[in-house]
Amino acid sequence: MKRPDPVLEALDALRDAADVAPFLRNRSHRVVAKAAGMQAATAKDLVEAFLRLLPGGAKSDPGCVAKLAIVKALIEREDPAAEVYFSGARHVQLEASWGEPVDTAAELRGVGVIGLARMAHREALFEAVKLLSDKEAETRIGALRALADSGNADAELVLRFKADSGDRKPEVMGECFAALLRLGPKSRAVSFVAGFLEHRNREMAEGAAIALGESRMAEAWHVLRDAFERSSVQSAILLGMSLLRNDEAIEFLFGQIEHGRERAAVSAIDALSSYRGDSVLRERMERIVGKSAALRKAYQDTWG
Known about the structure:
Layout: H1 6-14, H2 21-24, H3 29-36, H4 43-53, H5 65-76, H6 82-90, E1 94-95, E2 102-103, H7 106-118, H8 124-131, H9 137-150, H10 153-165, H11 170-183, H12 186-194, H13 202-215, H14 218-228, H15 234-243, H16 247-259, H17 262-271, H18 279-289, H19 293-303
Antiparallel strand pairs: 1-2
Helix pairs in contact: 1-3, 3-5, 4-5, 5-7, 6-7, 7-8, 7-9, 8-9, 9-10, 9-11, 10-11, 11-12, 11-13, 12-14, 13-15, 14-15, 15-17, 16-17, 17-19
């Protein structure tokens, strides 16, 4: 007879557990990670579980799954667990892979420094700046988010320097623009990010357009509209417009479908695909694309 799996048994028992503390002491990192996300988990038990797992590295918590779950849970509870956040922000965990060892603590470092920023720790900016040069993109992204979360005016200067310095990963630059727009002041941030819409690096320009759209700021609409005609990344600008969830932007996109060049019209159809669940916009779209085989195909490919 097959012996029961103790991990599966513990995960099953956890569903109805009123006290999750014993599960946070479980030998399985999967059980600990699951328990960390339970409302019944106390900050004290979470901190103890993290500090117990930390010295064991990959042996006690492969992939940093449990440690990451604990840090996220503490942040969600707005707990000032500085010791945990500092440890997470500085942790490196190299694990074997097919090639070079992989650092599985990249996200943990980024989330750890976010925890410090959220609790307004006086050392948060120092930790974030240090992690901006981390070799892992995921960590650098976390550091950028921490700078925005800090609400500290000095963080704006750091973010501007990072934007001007660039990064080898486009997703990091996109996060840098988003962080600037979140931190503000709004008009100054929009103006600064808008300056990258005509950047010689296409990925930088695209990242700026998407970040402006995701900000949903009224000021961003005017910037994107004014940049459209002269831009070399019109598809990204149209996507940014759709992300604004702005009536004027939607009308502009439909105007491109009806009266713009075919390439811009196809890009606008794709940009508006996030509205595919809107029956009114779908009906309007179907009336317009019926006039062109190319537009009908683009509609079918993106709207389904």
